[in-house]
Amino acid sequence: MKMIITIIHDEDSHRLLHRLNSEGVMATKLASTGGLLKTGNTTFFIGIEEEKVDFVIGLIKEECQTTKQMSLINPPISNMPEGFMSYPVEVTVGGATIFVIDVDQYLKI
């Protein structure tokens, strides 16, 4: 048994959850927040048999594509010197961060 933990962009979460459910894969969904851009993320916990791990990772790859967007990396801070201006930077958002972990015991009570 394996645990797949994947962190994805909020915009992809409904599409991924629908896809997982349509393929018979159960997942626990949690809201989370990204560190750099402080945008909404969703974390999925998926308990799955070892032979289905590659299949589930394939579903995640299909539903969670990266995109580019402009963002203010250095947002204005109230105590910054006068005349300081933040500037837009192109960043890559979306995609998925995936962890696959061995599960010693799986119980559904």
Task: Characterise this structure.
The structure is a single chain. The chain is an alpha+beta fold and 109 residues long. It has one domain: Alpha-Beta Plaits, CATH 3.30.70. 22% of the residues lie in helices and 40% in strands. The strands form 2 sheets. The chain has a 4-stranded antiparallel sheet with strand order 2-3-1-6. Strands 4-5 form a two-stranded antiparallel sheet. The longest helix has 13 residues. The model has no long low-confidence stretch (mean pLDDT 83). Pfam families: CdAMP_rec. This is Transcriptional regulator. It comes from Anaerotalea alkaliphila. InterPro entries: CdAMP_rec, N-reg_PII-like_a/b, N-reg_PII/ATP_PRibTrfase_C.
Please render the helix and strand layout as text:
Elements: E1 2-9, H1 10-22, E2 28-33, E3 40-48, H2 53-63, E4 66-72, E5 88-94, E6 96-102
Antiparallel strand pairs: 1-3, 1-6, 2-3, 4-5
Helix pairs in contact: 1-2
Largest sheet: 4 strands, antiparallel
What is the strand tally?
A: 6
User: How far is it from the N-terminal to the C-terminal residue, by CA?
Assistant: 17 Å
CATH topology (level 3) name: Alpha-Beta Plaits
Structural class: alpha+beta
Shape summary: elongated
The share of residues in helices is 10-25%
Instruction: Figure out the total of helices.
Output: 2
- Radius of gyration, rounded? 18 Å
Strand ordering within the main sheet: 2-3-1-6
Low-confidence stretches: none
Query: What do the pLDDT scores average to?
Result: 83
- SSE order: EHEEHEEE
**Total domain units:** 1
CATH architecture: 2-Layer Sandwich
CATH class: Alpha Beta
Assess the beta-strand content as a share of residues: 35-45%
Protein name: Transcriptional regulator
Pfam families: CdAMP_rec
Organism: Anaerotalea alkaliphila
